[in-house]
Structure formats: structure tokens, C-alpha cells
Amino acid sequence: MTGSRNGSRSGSLAGAERGSDADVVVIGAGAGGLNAALVLARARRRVVVVDAGAPRNAPSAHLQGFLSRDGMAPSALLETGRAEVAGYDAEFIQGKVDDVEREDGGGVPRFAVRLAGGVVLTARRVVVATGLRDELPDIPGVRERWGKDLLHCPYCHGYEVRDQPLGVLGTHPGAVRHALLLRQWSDDVVLFRHGLDLADDELAALAAREVPVVEGTVKRLVVEDDRLRGVELVEDGGVARATVFVVPRMVPRDGLLTALGCERGEDGWIATDRSGRTSVPGVWAVGNVVDPRALVVSSAGMGSAAAFALNHGLVDEDVELALRGAARAGV
């Protein structure tokens, strides 16, 4: 980056390679990271966004439940967001962050952000928006149909598959709740037990909501002409289904946060306050890296809240540094 705090910047990688200071490095350019960068850039902060280019929702054809963006392709949302952020002179670097180190810069936090390939960025604050990864069950067809007709989120896709014959794979303890939830979008929902232990109250709830339990082990998803046709069982035959839901194991991409020493909450995820502040001064985290339930719209809101609070902290720091400078000058 070049120029003064409020001056123009080239937006080129070359500036970052020289190690110039940023006010904020945002790691991850999903909805949370981009919205944080947007608010901060509009506040005339020097912002660098680093992104590896592998968004979680890339397999999905559309996103839902985002006011004014309902039905938009996820890739289109991110492309539009990047253009908006870049319009305020934020820089973008495509790459992977290997490490973040916190340093003591005269009593105020400073960070060294190391990218794969050797580039080192320095920043006053860091926002981590690296998301999570979905671990899917090892069943033939699951990974291939993921984001098409093998889905996870009822709120994201339930309306689009309403009134269809739906199935839920019993590969996760949350599968029962998923089946009961999906029942409001379709009268034809079945739960494939697949060895899942079911308590008496769960069986009673499923029966009361007319959700049959299909016994047996799932062998594979049956796909013909690039469409899901049903679920085949190991024991015998199969069940025709148009769409199947699964509850993946959600694993946060929080290695950078744990390496910095950010504390975890009782749920095992990195703990933050309502604005995204972690236990490590100067480090903020937003989106799915700290909240598996965050949808695109809520992740964007988390990014905005973090940027507001973070910038207030930078203002306080600017005042403190100015007072120190005035004291040294004898003003």
C-alpha cells in the first residue's frame, strides 16, 4: 500500500509485499469478511483482504433469505461485494494465511500476518472470517450431489423443494430434529435410520408428525440423468426421493485463532462478544468460524458489527498515540 492514511492506494500486491502497515487485515472474503471490510474502508481505514478463494457455499446455485438478494447466486454476491469494497480503495490479495503473530507495539496490539509464499503484512487489527468446512458422511453419491439435491439447510432450500418427497440421512444426532423441521415444507418426509440410536421420545415425535423411519443401512444415493432418484439400502431395495438432507459435521477453520490463544466457549467454538471481539486484544472473528448457525445475511451483519466496534477502538488508540506524541513534544 502507498500513500497516507486518507490518501489513495494502488490496491496492488506489490505494496503489500513491501510490508507497509494496514489498519486492518481481514482474512476471508465471504459475506462476513467483506462486510467488515466495506464498513472499515468507508471509515477511511487502510484495509487489506486476504482470501483463498474457496467459499463454503460454492456448490449452491442460489442463496435465500437475504433481503434484496433472495435467489442470487453466491458467486454473484461475492463478486458484487468485492467490487463494492474495492471501490473504497481496500486491497485484495488472493492467497492463504499461514500464520498470525501478535506483537507488542508500545503497549498497543500489532500483528504480523504471514501468507503462503513469504509475503508478510503488518496490521493494527485482524478480522478472521475463515468460515468452516462441512464433513460429509462417506456414502457414495453424497459428495457428488452436495449442494444440488443433497442439501443441509431447510431455511436455505426448503421452500425450493416444498411438497417433494424428502429424505433425511440418519448420520448425525441432529437428523431427527432436521426431519421434524422439514415436515413443515412437505407432507412426505422419511428418516433413514442408518444405525442412528433413537430415543423413545424421538420415535414418538416422528410418529406424531407422520415421519416414517426407514430401517437399514444406506448404501448409496441413486442418481440417474444427473438427478437424485432415491436412496438404496444395503439390506434390500430402496426408497424413491427427490431431495435428501444431511446434517454435516461442521468444523471451524479456526487454526489461526487457536494459535493466537483465543479462548473457546463452553460449546467448543472460539468465544466472542456480541461484536466479534475475541479474548485476544486486537483480534476479531465473524461468521461461520465462530457460529455454525450463521447464514449469509447474519454473517454480513456480524462483519458490520465487528467493524463498528473495531473502528471505535482504533479511534481511541489514535487519540492515545496523539496524546503521547504531544507529551513528548512538550505541547
UniProtKB/TrEMBL annotation:
InterPro entries in the record: FAD/NAD-bd_sf, FAD/NAD-binding_dom, Ferredoxin-NADP_redctase_2
Reaction(s) catalysed (UniProt annotation): [thioredoxin]-dithiol + NADP(+) = [thioredoxin]-disulfide + NADPH + H(+)
Domain of life assignment: Bacteria
Transmembrane segment boundaries: none
Keywords assigned: Flavoprotein, Oxidoreductase
Domain FAD/NAD(P)-binding stretches: 23-293
Protein name (database record): NAD(P)/FAD-dependent oxidoreductase
Species for this entry: Streptomyces durocortorensis
Lineage: Bacteria, Bacillati, Actinomycetota, Actinomycetes, Kitasatosporales
